Amino acid sequence: MSCQKLVGAAVVGQSGGPTAVINATLAGVIRAALSDEAKGTITELYGMRNGIEGFIDGRFVSLSSIFTTPNGTTDEEKLALLTQTPASALGSCRKKLPDPEKDPEFFERLISRFKENNIRYFFYIGGNDSMDTVAKLSRFVTDHEYDMRVIGLPKTIDNDLPGTDHAPGYGSAAKLIAAEVQEIVRDCAVYTVPAVTIVEIMGRDAGWLTAASALPRILGGYAPDLVYLPECDFSMDAFFGDLRSILKMKPNIVVAVSEGVRFADGTYVGESTQSGVKDAFGHKYLAGTAKMLTEAVKAEFGCKVRSIELNLPQRCGAHFASQTDLTEAADAGSAGVKAAVSGETGSMIAILRDETAADYAVIYKPANVQNIANGEQKVPDKFITEEKNNVTDECLRYIAPLIKGEPKLIMNGGIPVHFVFD
Amino acid sequence: MSCQKLVGAAVVGQSGGPTAVINATLAGVIRAALSDEAKGTITELYGMRNGIEGFIDGRFVSLSSIFTTPNGTTDEEKLALLTQTPASALGSCRKKLPDPEKDPEFFERLISRFKENNIRYFFYIGGNDSMDTVAKLSRFVTDHEYDMRVIGLPKTIDNDLPGTDHAPGYGSAAKLIAAEVQEIVRDCAVYTVPAVTIVEIMGRDAGWLTAASALPRILGGYAPDLVYLPECDFSMDAFFGDLRSILKMKPNIVVAVSEGVRFADGTYVGESTQSGVKDAFGHKYLAGTAKMLTEAVKAEFGCKVRSIELNLPQRCGAHFASQTDLTEAADAGSAGVKAAVSGETGSMIAILRDETAADYAVIYKPANVQNIANGEQKVPDKFITEEKNNVTDECLRYIAPLIKGEPKLIMNGGIPVHFVFD
Q1: What CATH fold (topology level) applies to the domain A8-169+318-376+407-416?
Q2: Which entry of A129, A132, A158, A242 is annotated as an active-site residue?
């Protein structure tokens, strides 16, 4: 933390997988960087195209120009469109940076780019891998005495970033999953013949998204009967036992399962039937977890079984985003700019629950990014039932505030309008 | 058509696959049957549980009781909840009725049930198969001189019902597909590496739903690059050629394909790699159309390829329903009741565009159900481009009015509230 005023340009980038609100964070950065408070300190705001990978090749745009009206005010209309656009509007990359101590060449090229444009502020919106970039760059500039403030802004639908209560992107994905799985539960309840529907939800190592499918249970709605997370070993015998118990009570069962569930020996459930099975082109079938379980249940029970993979729509479902998530995403972006202007560096903006508030409220607090970069926040044991086939009400009460509120979307002819950089 | 006043009870049922607005039609029936206009004519309204199959077993409820408040007025609050609930709230069935002329036994049992409860009005909400039920029952009661008015109310996401411009259920599915595919297009545009994403959309014989994915093109949004419908023979060579042309211009391609596309020899694309390929349980892999095309494109181009099956959520996505569709669904239900009370029978309520109106407007008109029962309305040639790899703007202008408008949903804690019969 340095208290000296640092005058220069800023650059912001987006990295890793898309979310419904990653552009809300970008909008928050733009709004704060163009604000009266930052004027005179942040002289210009650039946006990297395709993250650090595009930036190093000289691909970046002037966000100051794009988001300033001819009158000199911030273009709130464009920012509103940007906010409701899913997926990284600036483009993304998945570049894993080398260790700066061992392989400084990439960092030296970066510094040259920074110097060319007098860039003194660096904001990077992303998940675990992106925070690794922030951590490495922050160490490098400190060690090489290039005066720059380096700030990470959290983003991940998986909610697996440590050091923060939750991450922007999760609330909107959780909301869409809760609503769509509830719709699937209703859809599956219309017939009287025994049928099992298996819904596969994203999450290779952390089960936060799958847990969200159970939210309707505490909201007077309709939730899946069984919920399996990757935090617990998956057992086919226990699964069949769970199904058998429920089939005694009702004909329609809906199961939510994380794509990343594994057997006790560590093999993914989704890869277990794939060995040796090849298609006409000689490729292994990548059947997926739900597909594999579908075949297993068909063989065991002989009833109607169906698999549904929620797939990409769950991470970019801006048409049904959470207003809480959108607000926090934007506020985290603005908080990052303010913190950097005040001297903060080497940090990620964490979102923490304000435990002193009567209702749900959050505070934004810089956290040392070196402690975040390679950690992973999983669903804790206390959030999973003893039988390992559902989540607890305590877990759902933790998630519930994050999905609240619906934005007023700008629509055209029945579909949301998106902002796209030319 | 009989002009005599017919006093008695009415029964309404839902049949076939769920949609986002099938309960809006039910709400329209209830509202009209409980209205002052129908009072004294329709003495009571029953609802079949699980369609005609549940009804014949004596499973039905009194909708008059459930939807009347203690004050004696219609319970508009409950009707609002019912309207926004996806999937058949009364339950559904997929019973194919026998030919009444050859096998009258089922119909005789039905008539006994009608007589027991003095049922004189029969409303059935459904698609092609349900209209077959309406047609057969209508013939039977006429031939056996049981005085009952028999009315079909259209419902299908597939939009393949003949005799009507379009069917309730289609507009909402089309809206969600247009919005979600647009989100997928944005999601896939964030990286710079060549990648093909193949989105599989419902529709075994008619391509209306897949056509809807292209809607953003005429709405200033972002549509898939290629669109393949089951109305045209699918050629792998032509498909590869289409991909090759586009890959020359941009790295990210999104393809929308109907689940029902077939090669010129009539085999489904989705079944072509499945012959001989079995999983660990000895079951044939049912890989699906997009999955099969994914493997084919990987083998041919060696680039990143991904498949997404929109699956059930596209037909029960009430969280993003079309207000136009909801309104028309309810109005068709009410129109059915009014027509029946005025003497109409043996008809399906068709929705026709009012060609005299300056803007989009519809009229509800009874059409002879005997001419509808076994027909199928496919996407006409003029709606498909010459290259057979997209739809025309004329096609999109036909669909566009059907997806307009967003309902104000009753929410609880971030998810829509559903109505459920106990």
Answers
A1: Rossmann fold (3.40.50)
A2: A158
